[in-house]
Amino acid sequence: MDDDSAQPPARRRGVAVNTAIFSLLTGLSRIAGLGREILASSYFATSGAFSAFTLAFQLPNLLRMLVADQAISAAFVPAFTELLDQGRRREAFRLASTLFFVILGGLGALAAAFVLLAPVIMPALTGDSFTPLLDDLTVGLSQVLFPIVVLLGLNGLTLGILYAYDDFTLGGIAPLVWNLVIFAVLIPLRQAFDGPDQLYAYAIAVLAGTVAQFLITLPRLRRLGFRLLTRVNLRDPLVGKVLRLMLPIAFATGLINFSLLINSVVGSTVSEQAPRAIDAAFRIFQLPQGVFALALATVLFPTLTRFAAARDLDGLRASSANGVRQLALLLIPATAVFLVLSEPIVRLVYEHGEFGPQSTDQVSEALFWFAPALTLTGVNLLLTRTFFAVGEPWRPVAWALVNVAVNAAVSVALAGPLDIAGVVIGTIAGNVVMVAGQVLDLRRQLHGFEGRRTLIAALGMAAAAALAAGAALGTWAGLDDVLGRSLAAQIASVGSACAVAGALYAAGVTLLRIPEAAQLWRLVSGRARPAA
User: How many C-beta neighbours within 10 Å does residue 116 have?
Assistant: First the structure.
């Protein structure tokens, strides 16, 4: 079954069906991920030991973003798919096999070097608030966790092969399996350790989950007829092309993880609790980001690419600018709700077990200051996709580097006087600069970017969101006073406040006749046209 004339399995499902399946599974995995965060926080709160785990996990997690996920999908899948569609099946398998061994060898060597050098690297990332015992814990946890980089790099490749065969189901299931395995391992294994060393149970659970999500892809690859070839071709031009494309795509799309690592490193100079408090807030911040920004950018990217391929600058400009306004429509109200309800949201989500009021105060402070960055990071994601569509992936990389530099400089400058708030404000500053830079670049390249129209729409959305947020705060305060703070009461008060905010915001943007509201409804109902 290796002949070049063999064709890939027929693609039976349409884009809409694939998107619906992937979105459903992704939603379930995010719910499971939030459940994992709640469970871990109930065990470890915002302790210094949990901050040690946070720092130990973020470095391999950053590399995961750079070598797996969107980088593999964007760089490898098109080349592999083209070979399959041309009937060059064995060449496609050789390309995938070569990359498999390149990833295994390169990341394996990197992981081995890190395990040896962790006692030097990790203490350099921790601040004065970390005691020698916490430094030792950070080193040990990182040595357990770093091998996940190899597994996740290979998993990114195997999922990319499945995507090329129009099989998106496992791509949605894999993160869900990862979270479920962590639950299954962490809960019983924690009892085998004492004190801060219980975080080793969490690290081992993460490693086990990563092994599981890689292994579940292998039987499906076998059923599709894929074979790993031992004779590889390192001189294949496509291998070099894929690796060259991965670098700019990985850096631009992995920007948020650079920011999170900076926040944790600088946060460790504030207090031993700060890295975990910031990370816990980020997990809530990421929910609307993942649901709305990533979904909309994914849906619009093929349209942007078609306009760019046809050299239709008017269509590309209108579609990208319209996407920015649609993102703003979704993320501005989420920003407003986080600003007024950060404390009750954090209390509802996290305040269980060992996670007490002091931890709630720290995490809610971080979430409050993360909120203004929500719309900015979403817009940056879409603008980055626009540069990818026009074939200039290095432009967003340049602005991402500026973002990282500004983020680090502002966080370091403000961490002393403002503590956690100062650390997170760096994220806002970096994203402001990146949005402004990318918009100016696109204005020059596309001969405009509908700035006046976007500003007017954004001001209308902000006005509607402000009224909705005020009503949400009043609703929560009234119900909180009457119902108290049992779990059921908190669900009722926070849920009702969010529902009131959503209804009033929808009414507000409709009364203001903001066109993007109607456009977005047509988009989600399947009746949208590609252009603005």
Answer: 11
> Distance (Å, rounded) from C-alpha 373 to C-alpha 431?
7
Output the CA–CA distances (angstroms, integers) from residue 186 to 48, 198, 200, 204, 488, in the order listed.
19, 9, 9, 8, 27
- The total number of residues written for the chain in this structure: 532
Question: What pLDDT shows up at residue 312?
Answer: 87
In this model, does residue 147 exceed pLDDT 60?
yes
Indicate whether 317 pLDDT > 60: yes
User: What tokens appear for 261 in the block?
Assistant: 């690592």
Q: Collapse the DSSP code of 498 into the 3-class scheme (helix H, G, I; strand E, B; otherwise coil) and give the result.
A: helix
Which one-letter amino acid corresponds to residue 244?
Answer: R
Q: Distance between alpha carbon 415 and the CA centroid of its chain, in Å?
A: 25
Mean pLDDT of 187-214: 96
Query: Tokens 């456009």, residue?
Result: 519
The CA-CA-CA angle for residues 195, 196, 197, to 5°, reads 90
* Top-confidence residue, 308 or 9: 308
pLDDT for 531 equals 40
Radius of gyration of the chain (CA): 23
DSSP per-residue string spanning 405-470: HHHHHHHHHHHHHHTHHHHHHHHHHHHHHHHHHHHHHHHHHHT---HHHHHHHHHHHHHHHHHHHH
pLDDT for position 23: 61
SS3 (DSSP) at 95: helix
**Contact indicator for 249, 71 with CB cutoff of 8 Å:** yes
User: What is the domain partition of the chain in residue ranges?
Assistant: 10-253
CA distance readout (Å), 396 to 60, 61, 383, 487, 520: 23, 21, 8, 44, 26
**Residue 7's pLDDT band (boundaries 50, 70, 90)?**
very low
The contacts of residue 502 (CB under 8 Å, 6+ apart) are 333, 468
Give the closest residue to 320 by CA, choosing from 432, 449, 456, 458.
449
CB 354 within 8 A of CB 43: yes
Residue 3 pLDDT more than 90?
no
